Protein: TAFII28-like protein domain-containing protein
Amino acid sequence: MVDVEAVIVMGEEKAPTGDVEQQRMKEAEEKELIQSITGCSVSQNVVIAMSGIAKVFVGEVVEEALDVCEKWGESPPLQPRHMREALRRLKSRGQIPDSKYKKISFN
Structure:
């Protein structure tokens, strides 16, 4: 699995001001990323499906980050600290699986 916090850091590098910007990866970049994670080639249908899943995931994180921002008495734009806290909260509720040390058993 991909480390979600590493993806946020990548986003911060693209938007060094800390502003959350709407960005879109090219389909070739998406395919390359998925292939690097899975270690095998994937079809265009897989890329489309994963893009949809990613959009839903980002939407969940952004909604939670907006809640964090509101609870902290701040107003948008969202800052990286809001996103990190949103991820922490989602992980603590079990809505984001822990990506480290997955043991797969084939019983």
